[in-house]
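Kindly draft a polypeptide, keeping tokens residue-aligned:

***
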Amino acid sequence: MLILFDNNVPRGLARTLNAHTVVEARARGWHMFKNGDLLQAAEDAAFDVIVTSDKGIKYQQNLKSRKIALVVLSQGRWRLVRQRLEAIAAAVNAATPGSYTEVKLPIA
């Protein structure tokens, strides 16, 4: 599975998803893209999943016609993300084209 990490996702999460190919938006030069442009670029580049902590994306974008899956983390801080690595990996592994999954993380 080809996974794109949005700018707000901690790099350490990639180690948990080592069965997949993980690319950071910054590595593609996409770090300045707004959500709609990022979604389109990721779909055009054949990414399967975007992982982000932008909870507003479902309100800002029409996701119904999207082929890419979204996994949204409720927090983007590594110390909170690392407490739910298994749940995040399960959400990524279960992602299907066009799906939207939120993973709740502990509150700081």
Notes: The first strand starts at residue 2 and ends at 5.
